[in-house]
Write a structure and sequence with these properties.
Largest sheet: 4 strands, antiparallel
Oligomer: single chain
Strand content: over 45%
Number of strands: 8
Order of helices and strands: EEEEHEEEEH
Number of helices: 2
Distance between the termini: 13 Å
Helix content: 10-25%
Shape: globular
Radius of gyration: 15 Å
Length: 136
């Protein structure tokens, strides 16, 4: 089970891995993220992203409302955050990822991009979240 959306500028994929045996509201996903820029692509990949089912549901509700409120998608460790906010002329997409390097610092990536108000990326993301099976 997965969600996969690609706008040409932003590519995002979530693939279900497993449930936490002790907490059925905690779900592990593999995440692939690509952000295009004029000379190439920044990419992020992690196979241990733990998500809270309530966060997922809030993000989906915000997408379904047409982004009447800011939609924030983040993992339980706050290493991955994707936010979408409707503005008067565009949709603001912010992506922040970081990964700790045990006792050696961390790696991080941030992006802010403007998407068209009628962006096919947003429509596809909303549709795929809506169709994703509620397994929790």
């Amino acid at each position: 089970m997965e969600i996969s959306v690609n706008s040409g500028v932003v590519a995002l994929q979530f693939e279900f891995v497993k449930f936490d045996a002790n907490d059925p509201q905690s779900v592990q996903f593999k995440v692939e993220l690509g952000l295009s820029h004029p000379t190439g692509t920044f990419s992020y990949s992690a196979d241990d992203i733990w998500l809270d089912a309530d966060m997922w549901n809030c993000f989906e509700r915000a997408l379904n409302s047409g982004l009447k409120e800011k939609a924030v998608f983040n993992d339980q460790s706050q290493y991955l955050e994707i936010s979408l906010e409707k503005r008067s002329t565009h949709i603001a997409l912010s992506v922040n990822v970081k990964e700790p390097l045990r006792d050696q610092g961390n790696i991080s990536m941030s992006s802010f991009q403007k998407l068209d108000l009628d962006s096919s990326f947003i429509n596809s993301l909303r549709d795929q979240f809506r169709e994703f099976p509620r397994i929790w």
